[in-house]
Amino acid sequence: LKPGAMVPLLFNCVPTTPSLSVETLVLASEDEYGHQLRFKLKVQGVNPTVEVTGLVKALHGWGGPHGGIVDFGNVVAGDVCKKVITITNKSEFTINMDITRALCDDLSPFKQAKIIQRTANGLPIYAFRPEQCKIESGKSRDVEFTFRPDRGREVPFREDINISVGQSDGLIKVCLAGKAVARQVFLAPADP
């Protein structure tokens, strides 16, 4: 390079593990009489290692290696049923977790509200919390799912959600499923 000349450098890092990788890049002139420039490059891998408990495994590998079904079973219409799954971060770094509804994954929250199944009172049939959080290395986070059917029906209620952890390529797919049955009471008078 001539004095005062500039050359842009582009560093492309593709980490192969979720751990911290450190490399040193040394730039020097070919005749080895000039100065050496040393750059310490650090990159944190982005494919987290997680463990999910509390799911029923789906048939034919649906949902991937971590995904599955939250089975609410039979619930009486008007009752509220809650289930919890646990996501454990087994990585050496903190991960971000986001939960979205698969049906309207690419829509704004306003448009999502118009699409999801709701009760007559306007509440979602399925709800979950938290929608977003950070999970520190070695820690776990419970995700609570709520099923609140307000009417009985033969066909089970179902909704698919996606759980994204970190910036990994894969999503944890979860199917929420439950059947609502109408409350029935038979009264027999003692004195007709």
Overall description:
The chain is elongated. Helix content is 4%, strand content 43%. It is built from one helix and eleven strands. The strands form three sheets. It has a five-stranded mixed β-sheet, with no helix packed on it. Strand 10 (157-165) and strand 11 form a beta hairpin.
What are the key terms here?
4% helix; 192 residues; mainly beta; 1 helix; single chain; four-stranded antiparallel β-sheet; five-stranded mixed β-sheet
In short:
By secondary structure, this protein is mainly β.
Topology diagram in text:
Elements: E1 20-28, E2 36-44, E3 50-53, E4 68-76, E5 81-89, E6 95-101, H1 109-115, E7 126-129, E8 132-135, E9 140-147, E10 157-165, E11 172-181
Parallel strand pairs: 4-11
Antiparallel strand pairs: 1-2, 3-5, 5-9, 6-8, 6-10, 7-9, 10-11
Low-confidence stretches: none
Which structural class do the helices and strands define? mainly beta
How many helix segments?
1
Query: What is the N-to-C succession of helices and strands?
Result: EEEEEEHEEEEE
Beta-strand proportion: 35-45%
Radius of gyration: 26 Å
Summarize the main sheet.
5 strands, mixed
The whole-number mean of residue pLDDT values reads 84
- Give the spatial strand order of the biggest sheet: 4-11-10-6-8
**End-to-end separation:** 107 Å
What is the assembly state of the chains in this entry? single chain
Got a strand count? 11
Roughly how much helix do the residues carry, as a percent range?
A: under 10%
Shape: elongated
